[in-house]
Amino acid sequence: MKVLHDHIRQSRVLWLLIVVSIALFLRISYLFQVAYWFDESFTLKMVEFPFLDMMHRNITDDDNPPFYYLVLKLWVFIFGNLLTAPRLLSVLCSMGTVVGTYFFIKEAYQKRTSDEKQVNTEFAAILAALLVALSPIHVDWAQQVRMYSMSPTFAVWSSYFLFRALFREKSGPWIWGLFVLTSLLGAYTHYFGLFIAMAQFLFALSYIAIQRYKKSSATTTLSFQPLLISGAAFYFCFLPWLLVFLDHRQRVTEKMPTPPLTWDAVGTRLCLAFDLQWAWPVTPEMGIFVGQFFFSIFLLLAIRRRPADYFLILASLLPFLAAIIVSQFMRTIFVPRYLIAAQLFALTAVAVVISDIPWKVFRWTGVFIVVLSMGWLTKEQYLTRAFDASLPGMQAAVEYLDNKREAGDLALVCNPMLFTTIVFYTSDRNQLYTKGTPRNYPYYQGTAVMRDDEYFDLKELGGATNKRVWTFDADRWLGGTWSVHMPSGWREVSRRRFKEFNAEFIIRCYERDLVK
Q: Any transmembrane segments, and where (predicted)?
């Protein structure tokens, strides 16, 4: 019997290692070959500032909570700001999400009562982890220097600790403490962590109330006290940031206008949240299909009537529904990357439903269909990134500029969003500026991480002694053409184009026109 038990345990470890290996391969493939884009370089430039300056900019000019910036600043301090280091933090977080999904399912679906319908826990845990490992949206954000890979990590691990605290009699207050800590850090990583926390506390409150009402002998030790203490701790720990959160909300509502959320937009963004754009045209009709599919999944879960089933339904639906409702009263926040944690729980629900299929042939058919479908989407995303990595892009453009610039040559960038990226690839930041003044740009174009001495007003060229000026322009970028329009008295003497995955960069050289 011991030999059989050891064999089963080794088999479980082997399957988990296979899933982890797949996840790691996808997340490190072409990790460094694709250039930073604005959101990444904005984040990196934010953590370049001294701590107090960074926090001031985060509070007054940004619209994100601070925890990811703090972790990234420490990470960069330890490992450096080379191109290889910052993205590895996101890879590490995403790997923690994959492993956390496995342990969450193992914990949430442990058989605790004789009348509880048992799911094939190991099967469901491996399948759920595999779906998250393959999900293109998780792979995509694992390869970028942003908080969207860290947010689902805290969501899944806080849920793991919540189930340990609720269902293990000897869990102790330290488990409740870990739940509060990880849930709180999720909210301090991204504001959608508040929706996940709402789902968690609502589930725990409902479960304890129902079990106490039933007076089940198996749950007589359940008490509201640890939950109320945990809720109070969460509230008072987030309270210092609440005013900042409200200020952030007001700022983005007033200064970052977005189109109103329509039902067509809901449909298309549902497709994007579940990665369908990699294989099919994204349409509102396809979004209806996605909604119906998950409605069926949640209905099948509800029929089973296990606590974890209700939790998965709540943790999946609440952020989506809350985002739709909030978007009716302020700027649209129904954005796929914001919903990445809710998407994780929805994928987990699919894995559980398939694992519940009693007939082996149908169960494995379900596994084949969902894994093949997700694998196909992942393959398309992988090929797209491989193509993006083959383009000369930002690295080649900046290398060309560095090689051509001579001492004293001025270099002007057409927009702060490009400037924040260029500074991380150039070997010489001297005489490198963004054209114009801070007043020329809205705050969401990177002004929060720009210093005043990083702007150059073109009016100053009249009194400048520079004989040559280089400009960094962009075509097909953000839906238009962005250029440094040189004043009279300068003539273009050379031009070079570099294709990037989201634009075409143009390096122009101007010299003073000495002809009267």
A: 12-38, 66-83, 88-105, 125-141, 148-167, 187-210, 222-246, 286-303, 310-329, 335-354, 361-378
Residue 307 in any domain: the answer is: yes
Do 227 and 265 belong together in one domain? yes
Tell me how many domains the chain contains. 2
In this structure, which amino acid lies at residue 230? S
Instruction: Report yes or no: 155 and 344 within 8 Å, Cβ to Cβ.
Output: yes
Q: Which residue type, as a one-letter code, is found at position 161?
A: F
pLDDT given at position 118: 66
Name the DSSP class of 487.
Answer: P
> Whole-angstrom distance between the N-terminal and C-terminal Cα of the chain?
97
| Strand-pair category, 455-456 with 432-435 | parallel
For the stretch 53-106, pLDDT in tens is 999 999 988 889 999 999 999 999 998 876 678 999 999 999 999 999 999 999
CB-CB contact of 334 with 265 (8 Å): yes
How far apart CA 338 and CA 319 sit, in angstroms, is 9
Cβ distance 389 to 34 under 8 Å?
yes
- Dihedral of CA atoms 175, 187, 141, 271 in degrees, nearest 10, equals 110
Q: Choose one of 334, 355, 389: the last residue of a domain.
A: 389
Structure tokens at 287: 């979004």
The boundaries of the domain holding residue 218 are 63-389
Q: Both 425 and 483 in a single domain? A: yes
User: φ and ψ at 457, to 5 degrees?
Assistant: -75, 125
Contact call for residues 353 and 286 (beta carbons, < 8 A): no
The ranges of the chain with pLDDT < 70 are 1-10, 82-83, 112-119, 216-221, 515-516
